[in-house]
Design brief:
Length: 114
């Protein structure tokens, strides 16, 4: 958990001190990961973030009554993303229609109407 928080702080602030501390945490606990399998998979997730960058899918819907329908859409979407979010935000919707944003390392592609 601490490693993920340090990674997020580094990505949000671009402060190298967080990245250096993250590297130290990974080095310190790398030997113990074989003993704690659950933590190893979480650590691997952090390392994957570092290696591949962040990927995010954001679905903006105009009305909360559509939430269940688009939650299902997110679950069935086979694209690989580290973070998937469903937001009720009329301003992010194009022409008042549900809209998907695909982002990589904080830069989003052209939004698409679903």
């Amino acid at each position: 958990m601490m490693a993920m928080n340090l990674l997020k702080l580094f990505l949000l602030t671009d402060t190298l001190a967080y990245k250096e501390l993250l590297d130290t945490v990974i080095d310190c606990f790398a030997v113990q990961l074989n003993s704690f399998k659950m933590h190893a998979s979480y650590f691997m997730r952090v390392i994957r973030y570092i290696e591949e960058g962040t990927r995010e899918i954001i679905v903006a819907i105009p009305d909360s009554r559509q939430r269940d329908e688009y939650c299902q859409w997110l679950r069935s979407n086979k694209e690989e993303a580290f973070v998937s979010r469903l937001v009720v935000d009329r301003e992010r919707c194009i022409d008042g229609k549900p809209t998907v944003y695909r982002c990589h390392n904080g830069a989003c592609k052209q939004p698409e109407i679903i």
